[in-house]
Write a structure and sequence with these properties.
alpha+beta, eight-stranded mixed beta sheet
């Protein structure tokens, strides 16, 4: 019998066996198909969302032949892809060259569409908001691909606009609504919804050229109260002559006029470097990195294969045991070990092939169905759905090979059984290896040590290698851990005791499933730990502009009388949780916000001399000090009052940035959050409250004022004739605790009567409120609308805090790990039920209630899920901690080059994710397993 004939028979037997045990076969197919599905969906999504050169050109220049942009730096030289350019005339600094008439550089016989944008304040359903208005003829065919119509109609003429979907959602408007550009006073009807396929989250309005900027400029020319439009430079989409397009010689001519040109035909078919002056003078400037398969992608595929093997292996082992009589008969008919192995491997080949094909097909369908959701989340449209045949074939082959690998160990075990054992149904007794757990523990310790050494030495390759070695070592220890858990069952009630003992007795089935859960959870916990740590680091490094939970209402000098109306609008439209605390601006001499810098006064707090009053990270010897500091020591210095004066931004309450505010005790409660009666009494008594103690010496602070008055400040100049006068006053102050030095925007609160005594000028400037939550976009629009209706000149500022977009990724990771855990636990429970049918029948025979099956299935599921999650969490912490040590090393290196750079790299565990995985997922798995298990037993015929 030839090898092909033997394999045909083996595959035929495997196919019939798979059809006979449909439930077990479906489990194996599902285990192989799900990871293949995931890899297929990721591959197709990545390929579809990564634009080709042609697609990237279309998103930039639409259907035009070229995009012309004036760089305003005089003549330039560029590369063919327009990604790099340089000026050839140093006489024109960036942005300072004379504008040119771009149209003179177009090839003869071309057609062009202009693009120009301007920031504008427009009315909304809720009030007023700021947005970008782009003047471009969206109805022109040259714009297709750059801007596409979603619904409605393109705008035509000077009274119509199109809007993006995010703008409409944020403003409450819709197709058919009208909006007014505040500065021009013109109303526009929204006729349609458009989108930029490469930037779906853009909030913008689109109008025809001349519809917005020209009337706005015209109104500003006739009304000095209207600010002129701050329009950007005008770019041009160009359609070249038919059959010619925009060629490289055309681009070189345009470069002489200072124009940067992106041409479709030049990018797709670039000239040789010898014809590109910039490339000829800078060899290597056009080199690009070759595209390589990332380590992360390889790791993901390897982990998927590992999980399939770990989960599918027990299924094949159970199938081999259920078919042991059939395999024994094969031996009696002259078959040898090779044929037994071939039958079991044939099962892996058949089920692996079905699972691989199913996974690829379902992955393609799922990606297609979820395409709109993925596009919305990513903020860009897919190109044509990319289904690279070679990659999909490779994924299918990986699934097929995985099925074979999963069946390999059970095939070897089955082939070693004697014919007599197979025919009589005896399993035999096989003791666990005593060497394996010892070896596993040594490998685990070695891998963890390698990973941690890689972290401290900054070697990411060692971290990755050590983490994998540690996980393999823990994998070898799982059978012993499962066996140990079985001994704990004696202290538990009947159902969990039986579940633990069943898991310990059938370690060959339980351990791989636990290992698969561990692998999935370890990866998720490692990534989640890193993301939680990065979020904590970003939150620490974030410098707030306002105290958390507050908003500020501030006015210009001309709008002071409108402050009561602004306060009423804020109190009516925002979740204000306290009364307002008013504050006043303070300055010396003429106001620098009105008059020129050299013709106005100044006011400042004078810092005492001495090392105790200066930041060691900014003075002489800072680098030498930084070389000796640990990350924790540097963190403490960075947040010290002396360093906060140099590292934090100021000027929010005062335009000149002196950070002195005139206010009463209400500001202490509302904004500073300083609850100290002594501080309030000090302000009532005329004593300033100093928030940063570094400016105090012996309980006093020095205030230096330069009383310089501009000749244009006729009112104050008349009251204060003579030369510029400089005064230095020492004031007794209440010194707040050091933690209040980080209060955004304020260093000292000065009573009004003390300011008057120092001959300083003050005026009402605004109010501060405490709010229950950050104002929404609709809240801001309502308040802005009310303020603009009252005359404007007032703005509202809130503190939104650092971005928390990473929370979405953490949620996805939790769902992924939870899904794999549920799947692995359910699969193991199903296999346990199939493998232990005789034991369940015995239970019923000795009087067990029907609900015992449900409880036993539920606790079997909990055992696998909980054990895998706990071990996976511990395994995931090894690479997470090691990688953070790598980050810490890099941060320390940067800090020692620039001592003001933060070296804080915390390790923060994602307790919410871990809590869901450790508590919720095992309980959910147990409940589902119990609910889906039948209570009644099916009648079974005695074999033989």
């Amino acid at each position: 019998m030839s090898i092909f004939t033997g394999w045909r028979a083996s595959l035929r037997i495997a196919r019939r066996d798979a059809m006979r045990a449909k439930g077990r076969s479906a489990l194996v197919v599902a285990m192989i198909a799900v990871p293949v599905l995931g890899v297929t969906a990721l591959d197709v999504t990545y390929r579809s969302m990564t634009p080709t050169t042609t697609e990237a050109l279309t998103s930039e220049i639409g259907s035009a032949d070229a995009l012309f942009r004036d760089q305003m730096i005089g003549p330039i030289e560029q590369l063919p892809d327009a990604g790099t350019y340089m000026g050839v005339d140093d006489a024109h600094p960036a942005g300072k060259g004379d504008p040119v008439d771009v149209r003179t550089a177009f090839p003869q016989g071309s057609r062009a569409v202009s693009i120009q944008s301007v920031p504008a304040s427009v009315t909304t359903r809720f009030g007023v908001t700021n947005t970008e208005v782009v003047e471009i003829r969206t109805s022109d065919r040259m714009v297709r691909g750059k801007i596409d119509l979603v619904r409605g109609a393109y705008p035509h003429g000077r009274g119509e606009m199109a809007a993006t979907e995010p703008f409409l959602k944020a403003t409450g408007l819709h197709v058919g609504s009208t909006t007014t550009v505040r500065n021009s006073g013109r109303k526009y009807t929204i006729t349609g919804v458009v989108e930029r396929p490469s930037e779906l989250k853009t909030q913008a309005l689109y109008a025809d050229p001349g519809a917005v900027i020209a009337p706005w400029k015209n109104r500003a020319d006739h009304d000095k109260k209207v600010l002129p439009p701050n329009a950007g430079s005008m770019d041009w989409l160009v359609k070249g002559p038919a059959g010619v397009g925009v060629t490289w010689p055309h681009i070189m001519e345009a470069n002489k006029k200072g124009l940067l040109v992106t041409s479709r035909q030049v990018v797709l078919d670039p000239p040789p470097d010898s014809e590109v002056p910039l490339a000829a003078r800078n060899p290597g400037i056009t080199d690009t990195a070759s595209e390589e398969l990332s380590t992360a992608l390889v790791t993901v595929i390897a982990m998927a294969v590992l999980e399939i093997v770990l989960l599918a292996g027990p299924a094949f082992a159970v199938g081999a045991r259920r078919s042991r009589r059939q395999l024994g008969l094969l031996g009696t008919c002259g078959g040898d070990r090779r044929h037994v192995r071939a039958v079991v491997l044939g099962g892996g080949l058949v089920l692996g092939g079905i699972g691989a094909v199913t996974g690829v097909v379902v992955g393609l369908g799922l990606t297609t169905a979820l395409q709109p959701m993925i596009e919305d989340w990513a903020g860009q449209r897919f190109g044509p759905l990319s289904m690279p045949p070679l990659e999909l074939l490779l994924i299918s082959v990986i699934g097929l090979i995985t099925g074979l690998l999963a069946a390999l160990a059970p095939a070897i075990v089955a082939s070693r059984q004697s014919v007599l054992e197979s025919l009589t149904g005896r399993r035999g007794v096989r003791r666990s290896s005593r060497l394996l757990p010892i070896l596993g523990a040594c490998v685990l310790a070695s891998g963890a040590a390698i990973a941690l050494y890689g972290g401290t030495s900054g070697n990411s390759a060692l971290v990755a290698g050590g983490s994998i070695i540690a996980e393999l070592g823990l994998l070898a220890c799982i059978p012993v851990i499962v066996g140990f858990l079985g001994r704990l069952g004696r202290m538990l009630p009947l159902s969990p005791r039986m579940a633990l003992r069943d898991a310990a007795r059938n370690r060959g089935r339980t351990a791989p499933a636990v290992a698969a859960v561990m692998a999935a959870v370890a990866g998720s916990v490692a990534i989640a730990t890193n993301m939680s740590s990065y979020m904590a680091e970003a939150e620490y490094n974030y410098v707030p502009s306002l105290t958390k939970g507050t908003i500020i209402v501030a006015s210009s000098e001309e709008a002071v009388e409108r402050l009561p109306l602004a306060r009423a609008a804020v109190e009516r439209n925002m979740a204000v949780s306290s009364g307002h605390a008013d504050f006043r601006r303070v300055w010396a001499g003429s106001d620098c916000s009105v008059y020129e810098e050299n013709h106005c006064g100044s006011l400042e707090l004078v810092k005492p001399t001495g090392k105790a009053h200066s930041c060691p990270l900014t003075r002489k010897g800072a680098k030498e000090l930084a070389a000796r500091l640990s990350a924790d020591e540097h963190k403490k210095l960075m947040r010290s009052p002396a360093c906060l004066t140099d590292l934090m931004g100021w000027g929010l309450f005062n335009a000149d940035g002196n950070s002195i505010v005139v206010a009463d005790a209400a500001l202490l409660d509302t904004y500073v959050k300083l609850d100290d009666p002594a501080a309030a009494k000090a302000l009532v008594a005329g004593t300033p409250v100093l928030l940063n103690p570094v400016y105090a010496e012996n309980g006093e602070v020095t205030v230096k004022a330069v009383h310089r008055y501009s000749e244009k400040d006729t009112k104050n100049r008349k009251l204060h004739p003579g030369k510029t006068r400089t005064t230095t006053d020492k004031l007794k102050v209440y010194v707040a605790p050091a933690k209040y030095a980080a209060t955004p925007g304020i260093r000292m609160i000065l009573p009004e009567r003390t300011a008057e005594r120092l001959s300083l000028h003050t005026r009402a400037s605004g109010s501060v409120y405490t709010v229950a939550h950050t104002p929404t976009s609709a809240d801001d629009q309502r308040v802005s609308g009310a303020i603009e209706q009252a005359g404007g000149g007032i703005w509202v500022r809130s503190e939104s805090g650092p971005s928390h977009r990473q929370n979405t990724v953490l949620l996805i990771l939790t769902l992924f790990a939870g899904t794999v855990t549920l799947g692995a636990a359910a699969i193991t429970t199903g296999l346990a039920k199939a493998d232990a049918e005789a034991d369940l029948n015995t239970l019923s025979a000795v009087g067990a209630t029907p609900s015992m099956r449900r409880k036993l299935s539920g606790f079997q599921c909990v055992v696998v899920a909980l054990t895998g999650v706990v071990l996976g969490t511990l395994a995931g912490l090894v690479p997470a901690v090691a990688l953070r040590l790598v980050d810490s090393r890099e941060a320390l290196k940067l800090m020692r080059l620039d001592p003001t750079q933060s070296a804080y790299t915390p390790i923060v565990l994602p307790w919410a994710t871990i809590g869901v995985l450790v508590v919720c997922i095992p309980l959910l798995a147990g409940v589902l397993a119990a609910a889906l298990t039948r209570s009644r037993l099916a009648l079974a015929r005695r074999a033989g």
